């Protein structure tokens, strides 16, 4: 399996985000109303294989055209596309890459995007802060893992818990951020085991000390530079450390105790409430494309791995490993809904909600957060054509 240096990895994956930032400053961002005869969808996403349904759709427009007649036609590769539905040009699409969920949410809060793919918990935070946005569809579940440095004498969750309890200093864990999916799940598991945790670097009494690496992309450095004893976060970054021989896989976070995280929500599609009202058909059509993207990724993990490898500049072997812990779907099933409710509960207990979702009950989440009418319509249309089950 071909190795890749950290310098090369981040140089490659960073070029999209840097390019978008530079172009944005120079007026690259198109306004909500189209330049031309069709409207524009400004779509933000994270440079991650969690967003493979969008990446695969962008890279394999010919395949989507041939099989589904719903596809993205490139205008400027990686940036601008035309969405075609049933032989007609439905919209201009601007893809805006970001590094993490809060970046997507900042763009949404500024009114700079119409739709986005972001962490489910990040979308919840936006709703709490009063941003007029709705979660319109899941796009991916699971895909977060726990890895320790190869020098740690740990090979299981039980071994980790025992080791932590016997240590005379805090066990350090690199995290992408305190309000990420990985951190919320991991914190809940630690509390279940009776282990204490802190981000305070001066606190030597806690069992676990979290090191905020401020983004998933910096997790690789946390192990390579021995900043942390272990890391938690989204693929493919943990897989990169394993590929480099510095990390050892311990657990898929969906298997964390107390057993409520299987097939948990991770990344989801959001849309601004105003855009939903103004362009409901475009929301449905984009969700049709992403539903087909999820279907292709789930059935063709090999194709998804190659697409993400090329798009993100990551070795194919890393993506093949990462794909094993990822599931793609736009169906908000029972386990998905329960995990979102669990997020809200844990986030409430962590004091992360102080606005619209402060004290919210599970039964109220639907009215405050979700709008699944367009994902259901997209699913029904595709089922009627025999394109999805």
Automatic annotation (TrEMBL):
InterPro entries according to UniProt: TAT_signal
Extent of the signal sequence: 1-25
Keywords annotated in UniProt: Iron, Iron-sulfur, Metal-binding, Signal
Single GO term (MF): iron-sulfur cluster binding
PANTHER family hit by this protein: ALIPHATIC SULFONATES-BINDING PROTEIN-RELATED
Record's protein name: ABC transporter substrate-binding protein
Organism of provenance: Desulfatitalea alkaliphila
